Amino acid sequence: MASSWIDISVILKSGMVHWPGDPKIEIKQIHSIAKGATANVSHISMGSHTGTHMDAPFHFLPKGKGIDTIPLDATVGKARVIEIHDRESIKAEELKGHNIRSGERILFKTINSRRCWKSDHFVKDFVYISAKAAQFLATRKVKSLGVDYLSVGGYFKDGEATHHALLKAGIWVIEGLNLFKIKSGEYELICLPLKLFHGDGAPARAMVRPWTKRK
What we know:
The chain is α/β, with parallel strands linked by helices. It contains 4 helices and 12 strands, in the order E-E-E-E-E-E-H-E-H-E-H-E-H-E-E-E. The mean pLDDT is about 95. Helix 4 (about 160-170) links the parallel strand 9 (about 145) and strand 10 (about 170-175). The chain has one domain (about 5-10, about 45-210): Glucose Oxidase, domain 1 (3-Layer(bba) Sandwich).
């Protein structure tokens, strides 16, 4: 098996892009060795949906499961990266040609990875999953999916509808990936969110490496 893992997370830093209305991220050193302390210690303040993160059903469903209940195999194992060519949204029509199967882990690579992460300012016209595409994925019963900007749903359209369709279907959602260096194909995925008690979401570290068939 190939041993080279590729980090597909974004770096957390003060002043980075965040969803409008969510808390800004601030990382401040409160103890410094350079200033006489025995150790360096930082204070971190941010929302639960900052940078690369995961959504729990509780994010949009009042009685939904918290992020601490995620099955580990939801986001650990074989995954498929699908490159999307539509520059507006991920649509059901484009997905139908990819033979998406029940239980798959799917990561969608769009132009977001190339253009959106270059700026610390929020990009409103990012490529998102349309409500109809979300319904299509729900019928396919995928295990989990990931997108390469801050939301599976759009800023202007289908934000709530897309989240509801996916989370009600029990699909675990990864948001905020950077797939710029990743080509379409099969990979081994590891993405683990922080274990926040009944959290609506949590920051995560995600990585992939080319999939090699097991013996």
